[in-house]
Structures are given as C-alpha cells and as structure tokens.
Amino acid sequence: MIVFLKKVRTKTIFSRFEPVKVEPLELEYLKGVLEDINVENHIVDELYSLKEPKVVPDIVVLTGYNVSEGKIIEEAKKYKENFPKVKIIIGGVHVQLNSNKFHKEYVDYVFTSQRLNSFKNLIESIRDGKRKAILKGIDSNIYNENLKKKEWNIGENEFVNQQEEIIPDRTTFHRILNKTRFLEKRRVALIKGSIGCNYKCSFCYCKELNGGHYIPSDYDKIAMEIESIDSDFFWIVDDVLFSNRRDALRFIDTFKKIKLKKIIGYLRSDFILENLDLLTKLKEAGLTEVIVGFETNNNEELKGYEKTTDSLDYPKVISSLKKEKIDLSALFIVNPDYRLKDFKKLGQFIKENKIEVFTISILTPIRGTKTYELLKNDLTTKDPKKFDFLHLVLPSKLPRLLFYLAFYGLHLRLITSKRIWKYILKK
Prior knowledge:
This protein is of the alpha/beta class. The chain has 15 helices and 16 strands.
C-alpha cells in the first residue's frame, strides 16, 4: 500500500515574502502513524518542492487551511480521475467543522475528529479490506446496494479526551530544516502540546475544535520531544502556552532541567500582567519570543470579541517584555466599520509602544465560529480564497479602496523594524 500525504496550499498577498515558513506538522503526525504500521507513505508539499513520486497511490490524504477549500476539492477530483481506484481522504482543522463541504462523489472519507488512532484504524481497515460504513469521527462515502449508488454516512462525533502516545515522524523536517523560519529566526521546529483552547473569544476557530474540550499540555513530554530534535528554535503552537500560574511554574521547572532551548509561544496579555514576576524565570527557561493577540486598543471592540482583556494594560505588558528582552509579535484585528480615525488610532498605538513586529488582520468570520453565525448574512462573498484575513468579506464603512489604503498603510511602519531588516538581509 502507498499513501500520499499532501498539504494543499493557496497563495496570498504575502506569500512571496514568506516571513514564516514551517514544517507541515499535521502530515508528520500522520506519517508517524503510517510508519508505525509499516505503510509506505510520501509527504507532498509544493512549498518545499516535495513532489509526489511517480507511483500509483492507493490512498491520497489531502489537508489545508480554510482558504484552500476549493483547491482541496479540485485536487480530490483530479486524483480520482487519474487514479480511479484510489481512496481519497480529506482532513485537517478546517474540515473538522465543515465536513459537509467535502461530501463529493469523488471523495471517500472526511475526517471530523482529531484522534490519530481513528486515522490509524481507517488505514488498517482499507488495507485489510474491512469496509466499515460508519466509523467514529469519519464521514464515509459508501456504496448502497439497495440504491445502487454511493451515499454519505455521517460518523458519530468523536473527541480526544486524553493525550495520544503518537509523535510526528520528523524525516521530512530534517530535509527542510534549513528552509524553515519565523522572521529572522531560522531552523524552527513546530511542537504541539495541548488540544483546543480554554478561552471563549467569539472570533476564534480553535476553541470550537474537539467539541470545545480542552486537553492541557504535558510539559515533560514536550521537553523530551524538543531534546530529540536538532533545531535552533522551537515554536510551541498551542493556542496558549499556559493560561495560569501553576502551569507556568511547571513549564519553568521542566525546562530548567534540560539544556537551554529557544522557545516561541502564544501568551495572553492578562496572563503576562498577572505574572510579571515570572518573566525573568521564563526567559531563563528558554522563552525567547511571545505572540500576543492584542486584537485592538479599543475596549468596546474587545468586549464584542469576548476577549476579556483590558487594552489599558497593553503598554505595561509590552514594556515588561522589552525589559526582559523577550521578543514580541503583536496581533491586531481591524474592523470593517473602521473610519480613518480608527486606523490612525491603532497606528499611533503601535508607534507609541514601539512595537517592532506585528500582524494586522481584517475581521473575517470563519465558518464554525460564533462570529460567523452572527455575521453570515452580511457576507459580501463566499469565495474561500477571500477568507485569508487580508480581504474584506463584510461591507466597509469607508470606500473599499480607501479602506485598503489605510489597512496596508498601517504596515509601512514595519519598514523601520530592525527584526524585519534582519529577516530581509538573511533571506
């Protein structure tokens, strides 16, 4: 049996710059499963020129972000036309809450679960010829003898309730290691610890995954995995690295026991403010950069996002990170209702606080979130490629051209960033 594991990508406005370029971690987890059961497999990813071998696959697994929805469907159809007997499996975080969008005649299975053991069970059942109409966490396109045609059988919901003892196969990562980066930081490995998110921001897709069930990280397991990887930086891509003091202390204790590593992770501003005394210890434990979702410097907007943070605290958070020499990547959202004064206010906030690295997204309701349900009737497009956080998908108060000029104008300050210039020169 031969399996292709393919990351389907769609280019955005910033694709040519590629400030962040990382391994296809979800495929490496699937590769780990397949290697464990001795199934030949090949990761395919055009970002790294990882092309499919010239063999006939028995199974093709396709995954990608929300913007790639249409392209994933096109790829599935193409593979089925080229290899009529191939089994097409579609999965990934976008698919989990939008499985019905992939119920096409040329698709065989759609994953709605994050459970890796379910993927293992499916592959084994296909390999062993045991056709199961309905599997937990999997929608199946099965031939109905009575109807004389295929029909979709919806699998029972399945959630991960504990950490699985499966680690990613890093063979591909070691081949592309020197091409990976987080801005000026090179040789970056991705690490996944927790599942889901224990916060309730209305715009966030991640908190809806796994049925809203949050599985915390095992820091000992993370440390052990990090020690086994030859890399310069380790980006722990959990939605929040830790959300309470107890977990932060556990992280510090764990990472003090191993050789110093350079860690990148997500933290909330309220956690940082409430635990300023831990920043020195976190820096000593390896925390090199934090990514903070400030979203906006307007408290009324924060309430609308159900963010539960206070923008008046942000300057102290920023200055405290600078004092400890912990790098900051700040995340902001601009609302389609913004007037020029709102863009100016955000730009002034970034300037006054001397934020070197930031990203600004346009508020984009992602299907599967609370924000989407509230705003879906106002959408001006349903084209998945436009839901990249860089396009207006809702009506704007300003004329569209003026809105985009103001939006991209905010990014001009990045030209003054030393870190951005380091990235440019290294590239």
